[in-house]
Write a structure and sequence with these properties.
The structure is a homodimer. Chain A is an alpha+beta fold and about 675 residues long.
């Protein structure tokens, strides 16, 4: 509906520079905008896009600015007028909320508000008692011009009505609608002189994804260890049977390591040993055997029927099934014989195995994404995703994406999401910061992070600032895993069960998405290969016999955390995170709200798994919108505390190392708190 | 010389997204870059352009990155290899120094360094004692491919020589050049596989201007008050005769308010009164009369011969003459009758005078930059500039640019500089920050600033941070005027002569360009129209009789300041400014160096014009590259102090309110300081 006409546009060529005198208005510093619009920002359904920009022009000119947005495939722009965010700043803002999955576009327009200028100046002249006979003629002329532009459109008759009302040679009283009528102002916005409208030079994009792309609780498990019979190879059906165990902990994404046939050539034995014994199950990441590749299920895990049953059972429990996709092959993968051109070849004719010299990974052949047949390969890999989408999966955890070219991911994710915008991709890249960010820019919905290694107050504060208070929040959504099959971090190795409570609480409250690898986590498994962060006797290479019913499990605590997460919108976003002042390096405190500010949670965590820690927490009451007299309600213990000062004493023992306070404001009556706000 | 070939480029269309698999390397966050390359950065001759960027790729791939640059009209890119600025950051940097006025372009290229990967991996395998027979064949093949690409170019024979030296089936010792030869590494850079080179998507520009665009000392004067005979209308020749007075103060730019014929219609009288008496000279900014317009000289000031003599005299004294250009007309300007279409017309047929309702400026007609004949008008105004360039002027102070459209300035400056790249434009905009920045982006070489109103330590520190430590330093060059004919700031009205010393010192040392309006400044004139910042009996409306030889003049102090500025490269730039810790809110301290760090000056100023102030100055010695034992040499008084601690006591009376310390490092001999470093 709002398109810049080229009526007044004139290309001028001075010294090889092209200057188009299309508008005297400038639109700049548009936010959010990633790398000059090269990459989309991200939102989930229900999240708003708040757009700000500096908009200004020369002189005393008033201006109007509008935000335009539409679904990418739509043709009709929606328009919202932008509001000034304060005189002197030339900062304007407006917002919209995408209401469908896929891609939306947004851009801005602004123009000198001739009618507004006229209204302002003439009103001042009236106030100063100056004669405004000529000015009224000018104002009427502006109306006539707008009516001419409106020709035919809805609104034409309204404008004509105003013209009639004002008359041909109006008196001051007759012309009063020119100065005061709000509806006339709206019409003049709609039919403004668009010949010299500034249209922002870029159309920006936002990828709209399902809520789980931002807010989800992940549980990783190896089906082969989930048999009720000790050390018997578990199956998908065993997982189906025990899925309520996971649901009771409140996790809503269950993700499985690769479920494909496992190669036998150079199969790894227990603890990643180079030799395997017959009966060793091998690593699920050595994908492919005579029994199939990325579109097959490892026979020992079951059939496609079993898989369908698992997907169904999960759905009934409110759980989405996620698959781990590792684009690499064992030497036995069918691709190796069918498409040798997809691999790297050495001068002696052999296919290159993976290596990081001097280390060799002879059980894995990397794919050559730059081979002559790269396009067939890329499309085949897209088909792998489409295949599993057909089977009911829409969440994919991608293994080691940082070892494949960025353009490949951009291609694959765009292609998949064009048909299935509900698809969610989690990037498992533990790489350098710019690489992790680039993968997010290429379209990954969520990203693994450095959370696992950020343990001190200083580290956590700085890292979360980067993730939530910088531009990164627009395109990289963290998923805080407290452990993974590859990482048993030092803090969990030496801090006992308390450290598991601490790390789970931090992950679940700092980040809208979090996850664990279980049951190793809830059973507080802390035995590592000495001097490493590898699990001793890792499930990656052998079948474990988990004691699901161990009395010492922290599963109930995890369930409580996830329940709090579900019922509190404050925890469904990252950008409202704010750290709070607390006078101890061993205590960390922060708050979050929902974007509308109605749900305010304050989390306090004792970072020391060995000792009781105490300190004074100071709240910036005014900025948080809290009166001096309020109540904090610990959602973990259900205990309430009445506070009547910004500074309050807190104390946390290592075995109950956190408060998650819901802040309850006093109702303006003497006998009650509004417990339900 | 280095152009990306499109050999491997392939457009892919997935879901309407075009993905070109041209390179797996990313180049991002290129600095300096203004608004995605929409505007050039600025340098003066002798200034370097240090370019940084994040460059990275997937996996363990090594890469090489180069900075390319050339004059805009040149066809040959120069190449500099970029160096890593630290592992983990993926940050690279390189620099170049433009050696001619005009526009330079720069961009980046990067690619996966196949040869580097091979060298690194194979070297590790050798160290681990692995067999590398196949690897040597791979390495030799990379050389052969490079030789094929080099075909014909210089370097081909060198590559062939290496191939011969290594032989067909080389042993480890024969193949050693492959691993160690530096020249071979250079050849492999030059003839790298460019099919998958990432070329940064933007070509960035730098405007290269003469040094005075950055570093200059300005003196504004009204010739009509420079007659040796009291109250007689002064002339350009009077200025010529007295120009040594200005040169003795060390100013190198003398700028004159408009020197054109002054209109008589609605001429303003003394103190901006609406009625003028016969004999009142009128405001020089009411430009144009029967005697001519912007290309004429006010007859009472003299002739074009007198003007030429002034330009010559100035040149002999090392002074450049700058003109004030105000694109507006008195009702008597020839344009009004010759080109009525260049003005605004009201419905009653009259031409619109300037107004800011309810205020009227009936002696001024604004030009209509958007009229139907805008292009003729714009070109005529360019011709005004060309006219005065012909007369020997290359520095123009532009009056109120913020009341004319940005595109006009972009057009005019580009057109003028394409023929005369030595031209310097100073923007006299006291407008909102975004507007002042936009004018600088449009091409103004220098900008008036808010310095005049930044007086407290907090204000100065914050404002200078914005100007020198943010991206603003790349495109906006401040000119710190301590006063102007329009602004006698409060601090000068009430602080006595001390405040003039303070403000001059701050301006001259904080900003590479500074200026005053004299002789009102050096004579410490401080009488304002009560309650305003207007000079009482302002020279804008009447002829003054200046007492040039007043004993109380601070001219000698200003001369000292300018002499220090000339001889110290530390003061020729803004970006090295750094504030220092001093424990008094009334004392401010900062240092500057030249870009190579050899000239280090520390300035300490007492901001209180009424009282002696003292405090402890603490220097970050290590960061400044100073040993604990050093000397500071006050360039104002020529006194020296030996300091042997980071913290030292300073005390400044209001009548000698500043130190400008040259830091002299101890020579590594016991008996001397290196006074001359």
């Amino acid at each position: 509906m709002v398109e810049s006409s080229s009526r007044h546009r004139a290309g001028i060529d001075a010294s090889g520079e092209s200057t188009a005198f299309d508008s005297r208005v400038v639109i700049e510093h548009v936010q959010p905008e990633i790398d000059a619009g090269k990459f989309p920002i991200k939102r989930v359904l229900g999240e708003r896009v708040v757009v700000t920009a500096n908009v200004h022009t020369d002189g005393h000119n008033a201006l109007r600015a509008v935000l335009l947005y539409k679904p990418s495939h739509g043709s009709q722009w929606q328009m919202v007028e932008m509001r000034s965010a304060g005189a002197g700043l030339d900062l304007y803002h407006a917002e919209f909320e995408p209401d469908a999955l896929g891609t939306y576009e947004y851009t801005l327009q602004a123009w000198v508000d001739n009618f507004g200028n006229w209204r302002r100046d003439t009103t001042r002249k009236i106030a100063a008692g100056q004669d405004i006979g000529v000015e009224i003629c000018e104002g009427r002329a502006l109306l006539e011009q707008a009516a001419a532009r409106a020709a035919g459109a809805t609104g034409t008759s309204e404008l004509k009505h105003y013209l009639n009302m004002i008359g041909d040679s109006p008196s001051l009283s007759q012309s009063s609608p020119l100065f005061t009528d709000q509806r006339l102002s709206e019409l003049m916005l709609e039919f403004a002189e668009r010949g010299r409208v500034r249209r922002y030079e870029r159309t920006l994009k936002v990828t709209v994804e399902p809520q789980e792309a931002l807010f989800s609780s992940w549980y990783e498990l190896f089906p082969r260890s989930w048999s009720p019979i000790a050390y018997k190879h578990g199956t998908l059906s065993d997982v189906t049977a025990r899925l309520k165990y996971v649901a009771d902990m409140g996790f809503d994404v269950v993700y499985l390591p690769p479920i494909h046939p496992i190669g036998t050539t150079k199969r790894k034995g227990p603890n990643n040993s180079l030799e395997s014994e017959p009966g060793d199950p091998g690593s699920p990441w050595a994908i492919g055997s005579q029994e199939g590749g990325h579109k097959s299920i490892h026979p020992e895990l079951g059939t496609f029927e079993d898989f369908a049953a698992l997907v169904d059972a999960a759905k009934r429990l409110g759980i989405k099934l996620a698959l781990d996709i590792a684009f690499q092959c064992s030497p036995d993968h069918p691709y190796v014989s069918e498409h040798p051109e997809w691999f790297y070849h050495r001068p002696d004719g052999s296919i290159k195995y993976a290596e990081n010299p001097p280390k060799k990974y002879e059980d894995i052949y990397p794919l050559n994404f730059e081979s002559e047949s790269w396009q067939q390969l890329w499309d085949e890999l897209c088909d792998v995703i489409f295949f599993w989408i057909e089977k009911g999966v829409h969440i994919f955890r991608i293994d080691n994406p940082h070892t494949k070219p960025y353009p490949f991911w951009q291609y694959l994710i765009a292609k998949v999401k064009s048909r299935h915008p509900e698809t969610v991709f989690l990037s498992e890249a533990f790489a350098r910061p710019r690489i992790m960010e680039q993968l997010a820019k290429c379209g990954f919905s969520q990203s693994y992070t450095y959370f696992t290694w950020r343990t001190s107050k200083w580290e956590i504060t700085n890292y979360l600032h980067e993730l939530t208070q910088t531009q990164v929040v627009e395109f990289l959504r963290p998923n805080f895993f407290a452990n993974t099959p590859d990482i048993l971090p030092e803090n969990l190795q030496y801090g006992g069960p308390s450290s598991f409570l601490i790390r789970a609480t931090l992950a679940a409250t700092l980040s809208a998405a979090w996850g664990i690898y279980g049951p190793a986590f809830e059973l507080c498994v802390n035995q590592a290969v000495p001097g490493t962060e590898e699990y001793l006797d890792s499930e990656k290479y052998e079948i474990k016999n988990w004691e699901f019913n161990d009395q010492r499990t922290i599963a109930p605590y995890l369930g409580r955390l996830n329940q709090i997460r579900k019922s509190h919108p404050a925890l469904h976003n990252n950008r409202t995170l704010r750290f709070l002042e607390i006078n101890s390096d061993e205590l960390i405190a922060y708050c979050k709200t929902d974007p509308r500010g109605t749900d305010l949670l304050i989390t306090v965590v004792n970072l020391d798994p060995y000792n009781v820690q105490s300190g004074y927490l100071t709240l910036p009451l005014e900025e948080l919108g809290i009166d001096a007299d309020f109540q904090v309600h610990d959602l973990i213990t259900d205990r309430r505390y009445n506070w009547s000062s910004p500074t309050n004493f807190v104390q946390l023992p290592p075995n109950a190392p956190a408060y998650i306070f819901k802040v309850r404001k006093r109702v303006r009556r003497e006998f009650d708190f509004d417990y339900f706000v």
